[in-house]
Amino acid sequence: MAGNTFGTLFRFTTWGESHGPAIGVVVDGVPPRIPLAEPDIQHWLDRRRPGQSRYTTQRREPDEVKILSGVFEGQTTGTPIQLMIENVDQRSKDYRNIADRFRPGHADYTYWKKYGIRDYRGGGRASARETASRVAAGAVARKVLGAGITIRGALVQIGPHAIDRGAWDWAAVEENPFWCPDRKMAARWADYLDQVRKAGSSAGAVIEVVASGVPAGLGEPVYDKLDGDLARAMMTINAVKGVEIGAGMAAAALTGEENPDEIRMKDGTPVFLSNNAGGILGGISTGQDLVVRFAVKPTSSIPKPLRTIDADGNEVEIETHGRHDPCVGIRAVPVGEAMMACVLADHLLRYRAIGGSV
Amino acid sequence: MAGNTFGTLFRFTTWGESHGPAIGVVVDGVPPRIPLAEPDIQHWLDRRRPGQSRYTTQRREPDEVKILSGVFEGQTTGTPIQLMIENVDQRSKDYRNIADRFRPGHADYTYWKKYGIRDYRGGGRASARETASRVAAGAVARKVLGAGITIRGALVQIGPHAIDRGAWDWAAVEENPFWCPDRKMAARWADYLDQVRKAGSSAGAVIEVVASGVPAGLGEPVYDKLDGDLARAMMTINAVKGVEIGAGMAAAALTGEENPDEIRMKDGTPVFLSNNAGGILGGISTGQDLVVRFAVKPTSSIPKPLRTIDADGNEVEIETHGRHDPCVGIRAVPVGEAMMACVLADHLLRYRAIGGSV
Amino acid sequence: MAGNTFGTLFRFTTWGESHGPAIGVVVDGVPPRIPLAEPDIQHWLDRRRPGQSRYTTQRREPDEVKILSGVFEGQTTGTPIQLMIENVDQRSKDYRNIADRFRPGHADYTYWKKYGIRDYRGGGRASARETASRVAAGAVARKVLGAGITIRGALVQIGPHAIDRGAWDWAAVEENPFWCPDRKMAARWADYLDQVRKAGSSAGAVIEVVASGVPAGLGEPVYDKLDGDLARAMMTINAVKGVEIGAGMAAAALTGEENPDEIRMKDGTPVFLSNNAGGILGGISTGQDLVVRFAVKPTSSIPKPLRTIDADGNEVEIETHGRHDPCVGIRAVPVGEAMMACVLADHLLRYRAIGGSV
Amino acid sequence: MAGNTFGTLFRFTTWGESHGPAIGVVVDGVPPRIPLAEPDIQHWLDRRRPGQSRYTTQRREPDEVKILSGVFEGQTTGTPIQLMIENVDQRSKDYRNIADRFRPGHADYTYWKKYGIRDYRGGGRASARETASRVAAGAVARKVLGAGITIRGALVQIGPHAIDRGAWDWAAVEENPFWCPDRKMAARWADYLDQVRKAGSSAGAVIEVVASGVPAGLGEPVYDKLDGDLARAMMTINAVKGVEIGAGMAAAALTGEENPDEIRMKDGTPVFLSNNAGGILGGISTGQDLVVRFAVKPTSSIPKPLRTIDADGNEVEIETHGRHDPCVGIRAVPVGEAMMACVLADHLLRYRAIGGSV
Q1: DSSP 3-state assignment of B266?
Q2: D336 touches C: beta carbon within 8 Å
Q3: What phi and psi, each to the nearest 5 degrees, are found at residue C296?
Q4: I want to staple A144 with a disulfide (CB 3.0 to 4.6 A). Which of A345, B18, C78, D199 is the partner?
Q5: pLDDT tens digit string along D304-349?
Q6: Angle, CA C3 vertex, CA C82 and CA D342 arms, to 5°
Q7: Quick check: ipTM above 0.95?
Q8: D77: nearest CA partner in chain B
């Protein structure tokens, strides 16, 4: 329980540092006889892979996944699935000059305080590189969920620029390097991020992940509520500072009449007239779309001097000139999707255990 | 793992329905030889107790706690501590007329979908009454944390009315029925909530919980990050729809220069020049104040007609005339504090396990 | 994870000391809509209750169970079930004279070393009284398993006197105070235990628990094997020093030809020609009878002087004159049955989670 | 929780099949700043490695371990340690002819019933090859325990031939291929096993593992007792059918006077006058030697015809001519030691969490 494991029945454990020989994930609890091959996982890793546009880090990692166990003759066997990704472009020397200074906004200081040791090579375990393992686990989770459940993510805000929700088009998400559902805003973000990068700064973002086709009944009250698990799932992604379900923080300002999602019948099925609940009531899915949002802070590594201290307690300055994302939030979209998939796969199996027929 | 347990080493399990004979909590993992008596717990329960002002439900529950195990001659023994609170004012008949209709915004529909059964007596297990057990557990957690760590909560927004953070005074929190740190806003909220109640409506709220004196080093990367556990802890409180750490959702709009909390030395100790991180970097506490906020939606039970369906799929309307809080967020303050205490106690013990000397 | 919880999906947490106001258990993870009432549980508690013959302790405990939560209108609701048993016959004064001496063979010394505190009232949490909570949880587990699975226990050895397995008759088990399946041996044990008691001594025992009707497929390799969980389940019962599955320790002396249970078909169903495996291969049930045995050491509290030390490190002697079982193994039979039921219920739910249709 | 994880704080997850590309283990929860390098682990793997004498399988596996994460500049970092062992000598073709027949005494049948799929290559996940991962984890556990705790194993019985405990000499254990502490018996076992192999049969064994230097206070009552965890640990090793602590099954026949280990003082320290308890009372270590024994059944794969069925329900016979150990119990000695080390490391960390200073 040192914290590298997520999930109860669909349960994965990640390992590896950004500059070690490899990273990976053991996925346990996968039901048997599910078709699974490396391309099924590679597909999702490719979406997260860095270096695909000028808006993400230029670190070149092929992020090629290997299945080392748990699959036999093209099917899951019910035994643990080990997925390994070798690190290729490590270039640790980039980090030597900052090895004894704590980068503000990074985990350098807290790891050093907690463990009395510091893996200065790109953040070690605290690096966002770890999220590749999440995406690999998420690919397996999608297989467990099956084709009836669709999980899609989008970027809805970069810096202060939020999309026009009325212009939302899922098709647009695949057309721009930002996973932006609002075509006009995508163009604006391109300009904005070019400025940000030129200014040696960085930008935060808000990601929204939506799961459709989720049956009612997933989620375990009281402490393993579906929203509780989603909140934890998203908050543990690097740089996330806030998580919202449905109306989110704005729910505080709704009136008692506005907030409840009223229900009518349509073709013999209950339909909700709104979705302030984000598809969850009492910690259990309602059958509506699940809607989760999370905010990612701006990349903390910037090429401008910031005041900090070193391991000996000297006041120093630090500039970070490595290859970093001007907006880490962009690459967080596939990660958020993956975490949603993992949480749902876990709760699907848990629901089955008590007789739920999904 | 059906979801009624929280924590890894400091670990509690709650039980009981709003209208059963009693509710309670088993707290396991408490170190031995900690002085503990019923008044230590009662003190915190009294702060959450309903019926203390006209702004909370008029249900009269003394919420008297009994220690049934785990304490001997005034000290914890290291064995599980059972805390029981008998339900006194049950009045189930209030609920008979809504027994087969799903209250919008409530868990009625999802429990019924999941379990095929409905405890219509005030929400049963989904009732906010369960949070009394959390407060009891939190009282024990405070004892584990010791006097050096202070946990305080405040209401920072009701409906659309947010406090002036510049006017923050912790002393004010104890002087008004809203736990409001801004005296002027407290007066305004009183008027606002009177209107809301007269209008047969309800209001949401935002709660902020701050822990001071927390040592650096608490939190287990990657999936048991301190902020991940806090997010889950708060999101599982009834009616919560969003959770923020430090700058929260607003972090998305900060620039790369604004966001990182720079560090200087003061009297031989590192000091951060801001706290956008909310006291957590890489999932581990920095030693700064921990700052968590969460939004509570407006009470869903209102005396106005809402469109819904019944268990047979008929379209009906529902009005709820029971005794409900016009703003459930008020009573969520002690609950948020309790959850903060429980998360910290758990991580304190976990840190000790690997040799951390706190 | 302080150790008072057992099970993964069917999961219970016990609490309470032998001389506190009450003991009990929270059973979580029970599927909804299972009929359950207090007599369903009381039936099994009555079988374990002390004072039913002269061969068990004369402590008088009615062991009356109350359901405090999780059941509504006669059915489980899917929420945690709190079962409480009030302690009636506490007589703590019996223990005052031994309060600072460590009884050899008891947990006095280790609790004191571990916790630095000692609940001298009859062993506190280490008392076999805790097993009443296990029996209560086991009664719920039987309901989860349904009528198709039968769990029966028997005493197969007291002191050096083992039964004649050829004389095994399950009907006999209900006819004597020893749960002995061999009528002749039951008579012999009666004489033997009378002698033992007169001599101020005590006797050990071996219990065998058999589950019939268990479907193939229960058990999770590699560390949650069915036999691994059963071994832990039985070994955690007070005074147990050995656990065997099927042929048990004797398996070491079998030849490679004798040991494997060969398979034939009968009426279209696989049948095993022997059961050295005790119904488990590779940690998974085969569909044969599950057979578990465990050895219980003689009652450590005897009215004869034993050499020990006190809390100050003085060499002293101790005699225990309280009301104790001459053979604690007798009352361990219903406890072993209960633990078998709980392990099976847990694995049944776990099997369902991956699609197993049981 | 699909069963491939062991431990609470010192926690490892194994993965890999006997005939896949690799096997391995993620060890999580290791405290930081412990010196660790591959030779520290290789040392123990070499003791388990097959092909070292004519009494073990002739499969040639170098079992070379690689540390892929969690160690930086020769020290543990507090992050998960991935240990990988590539499979070299796979020769799956050996198994083709038995691919659709269930080997009696093996997990073939139960895996097929549970998962509806069968990895016929040498047992897949059910193969004893998995135990190499346990030995690797155990090597890390020994580092966590430190030099003050010694864990040694020995074979005390092969087939019907038990050692003379009076002749026990730990030095002898390293001198013969059986880890036998009784030199005379080692010679006799050599003859016996030669006969067994010539006869196309196999033999069972009993292993004893002893831990010295274990401080009093390890173990968490009630369900995470040290003996309960040890029982589970040993019972989950392939082919184990019985586990004993201290006097074990024989405790049943001891008298009430013989069984309790009396206590005296020696040089200011408590000393027990016997060790029937095997170093554990009430689930907590006493400070005496911990003594655990377990029985391993004879190798089920023998070159003689056994009656069985195939996947289509036909009655068939099967002979297994692969390279198998005539007595798998021999190689179980280092595995038993490893599991003891892992259980102790876990409880050491757990004890520290509540303030125990070990």
Answers
A1: strand
A2: no
A3: -110, 130
A4: A345
A5: 999 999 999 999 999 988 667 789 999 999 999 999 999 999 999 9
A6: 150
A7: yes
A8: B354
